[in-house]
Specification:
This protein is of the alpha+beta class. The chain has one domain: Sandwich (Jelly Rolls). It has 7 helices and 12 strands. The strands form 3 sheets. Strands 1-10-7-12-4-3-2 form a 7-stranded antiparallel β-sheet. A hairpin with a 4-residue loop joins strand 5 and strand 6. It is globular. The two termini are 17 Å apart.
Length: 263
């Protein structure tokens, strides 16, 4: 069922796994400590309601934190057997933490960007980076997948991850058309802003928006091409002092052709 859902919808969830829960146990304190690390101060955003924490977790290439176990379990087995991805180096995980009130307006955020964050969950596809004063999008990173590992218990509505089901195939179709006559080494030079935004609008109109809430020991896997974001903190949603804390692994695997054409 996980395989069928993943390739149809662009994401799947994994039930409680004691192997992964052990990884969370060993990594939680290090994840907490990223908040107070001076070198990570730039990641506190949205009026203090979101710590973006990109590559903030001090894990090694096995995903191990502070001498703990390598990241492993059912989700990693799925990545190996269903996506065919093995023997790669794990990136330093993002430590994404949201707090009640997310998203408050950020000091460096335009009103349009703040509105998009509130109304459209800041929906995006990883690897399409905004560049220059006009924030034009270019393909710069070629992630293999997005693996989310909750680190703290939360209630429904506590800024869950949002995925637009089936959007990965809309994006694949759109970018296949953009890049069809170009060698892969030139894809990063192409300004893909307009076709990307058009595909995103199509996803908003035609794809089911799903909020994904999970607890420590559980995990979810998102297709690298899927449109996803973070929902605003709902009224009455609950979480402990750690807020909604999730570690995200997004290793870069292969090149642009793999990013676009792999399963």
């Amino acid at each position: 069922m996980g395989r069928e859902q993943f390739f149809r919808s662009g994401w799947c969830r994994f039930a409680f796994d004691p192997v992964l829960a052990n990884w969370v146990h060993h990594g939680l304190e290090a994840a907490r400590n990223t908040l107070n690390a001076p070198e990570q101060a730039e990641w506190l955003r949205c009026g203090g309601t979101w710590f973006a924490g990109v590559n903030a977790l001090p894990n090694d290439e096995r995903g191990s934190v502070a001498g703990g176990p390598a990241v492993s379990g059912a989700a990693v087995d799925f990545i190996a057997h269903e996506l065919g991805l093995t023997g790669f180096t794990w990136d330093r995980a993002q430590v994404s933490i949201c707090y009640p009130g997310y998203p408050k307006p950020g000091d460096q955020e335009t009103e349009a960007a703040a509105r998009f964050r509130r109304n459209r969950d800041a929906a995006h596809v990883d690897g399409l980076l905004p560049e220059g004063p006009n924030r034009r999008r270019h393909l710069r990173e070629h992630h293999g997948f997005l693996l989310g590992i909750p680190m703290a218990e939360v209630g429904a509505g506590a800024s869950p991850l949002v995925v637009w089901e089936g959007s990965h195939e809309l994006m694949r179709s759109a970018f296949s058309e953009v890049f069809q006559d170009l060698p892969p080494e030139a894809w990063g030079d192409v300004d893909v802003t307009e076709p990307y935004q058009a595909a995103r609008r199509q996803a908003f109109e035609s794809c089911r928006r799903v909020e994904i809430t999970a607890q420590p020991g559980e995990a979810y896997l998102v297709h690298r091409l899927a449109l996803h974001g973070v929902a605003p903190w709902a009224d009455g949603a609950t979480a402990g002092p750690d807020g909604r804390m999730i570690c995200y692994f997004r290793p870069e695997l292969g090149g642009p052709e793999d990013w676009l054409r792999a399963a």
